[in-house]
Write a structure and sequence with these properties.
Two copies of one chain form a homodimer. By secondary structure, chain A is an all-alpha fold. Chain A has two domains: about 45 residues, Arc Repressor Mutant, subunit A, CATH 1.10.10.60; about 140 residues, Orthogonal Bundle (Tetracycline Repressor, domain 2), CATH 1.10.357.10. Helix content of chain A is about 75%, strand content about 0%. In chain A, helix 4 crosses helix 5, helix 6 packs antiparallel against helix 7 and helix 7 packs across helix 8. The interface between A and B is large, with 38 and 38 residues. Chain A binds a DNA duplex through helix 3.
DNA sequence: AAAAAATGGTACAGATCTGTACCGTTAATG
DNA sequence: CATTAACGGTACAGATCTGTACCATTTTTT
């Protein structure tokens, strides 16, 4: 089997470092050291550090898209269950030891200038993700899908921030219960009986 | 009237710059330039940049405490109304042009190392604030005050992040309505009739 | 095996940032 | 008015960070 390319190794190591320790805090030298790659190899594969950051954001965008794909595969006949599964998946992520919040939100905070490429790309990343969820909410039969999606987004972002700041002192159970209830209430509020979708 | 001290001018200018453009993005030279102070004067008043960051965090902690004091003065006879007024005050803040999220949350993202002084102080800042709100919820007669406070905290943090990332595309009305309803539901869920406190 | 592509190693330029040293000047205070 | 405290100006040390230049080596492909 072919050896992992230098580009892949760099992106893998950098993604981990960027996420865990922050983009601005991690220098090129650190990435080179931990990925065991020559500096010249780095700049052959990435035009600049910002270029690597862009790849890092695209990588997480792919991860999010795959999560959505997965819940759609697991529950092909119920958009409602897809929403609930998405919440569960999200809670599981928050429980993992190395969890450090949303990479897109963190990036926008590390690059406050809203005209900066990294900032723009990060905003676009979450938007695409939540747009898909809004479509899911619509397909699931929510009376006001955009409203449900926005409330879910608020709740999730808040839970992310809380779990990030409070670490193990944060219990995601309350978030989980509230999010599930929120979905149900929006799906059932406009009709008394449920129709399987 | 006495001229503003150099220390005050530095803190005032730095707080604005740190908040608007980020702590790591702002160098000492920029602070010196915009506050019209000599570099030597800076280091006479602050031992280091981190020392200034600590003062910046304390400054925002004071602002939060004053907001709480104010709503308690405005509604001395109803803890419930204090909670609602706090939400309104928060919404107003989000609507102001230069709003750039929670300085404490942003600081923890800019300094991901949880053992870093800035990170620790920022976490402590929000905790103190929300502890006071939890006490308010208890005094207002919430059945589960800690739960109400945590849900409010999640919603607020989420709304902060959304308004930060979406800027003017974010309409805080949905947040406002949801937060007010949340407070009411937690205050009235355990009893049918309201008793003025 | 020969050619081509990818990688390694390293020195260094150039910019930036924090913090110090040193001295002169202004403002408050007795 | 004299003393003391606060401030201004600036040069510079030391560290760090991004990015380039140059050449040797290894791996892959033909």
């Amino acid at each position: 089997m072919p050896k992992e390319t230098a580009k892949n190794r760099i992106l893998r190591v950098a993604s981990d470092l960027f996420y865990r320790e922050g983009i601005r805090a991690i220098g090129i030298d650190r990435i080179i050291l931990e990925s065991g790659v020559a500096k010249s190899s780095f700049y052959r594969n990435f035009a600049s550090k910002d270029d690597l950051v862009a790849a890092y954001l695209e990588y997480h965008q792919d991860l999010n898209a795959k999560d959505l794909d997965e819940v759609q595969r697991q529950h092909p006949n119920s958009n409602a269950m897809q929403l609930h599964a998405l919440i569960d998946k999200f809670v599981e992520k928050m429980k993992t030891p190395g969890y450090r919040g949303c990479p897109f939100a963190n990036t926008t905070v590390e690059f406050p200038d809203s005209s900066h490429d990294n900032h723009i790309k990060a905003v676009k990343g979450t938007d695409e993700n939540w747009n898909r969820i809004a479509i899911l909410a619509e397909k699931a039969g929510a009376a006001r899908p955009l409203e449900l999606a926005e409330l879910l987004r608020m709740l999730c972002n808040g839970a992310i921030m809380l779990s990030y700041m409070k670490k193990h002192d944060f219990n995601p159970d309350l978030f989980s219960a509230t999010a599930h209830t929120l979905v149900d209430s929006h799906l059932f509020s406009w009709t008394v009986s449920r129709k399987d979708d």
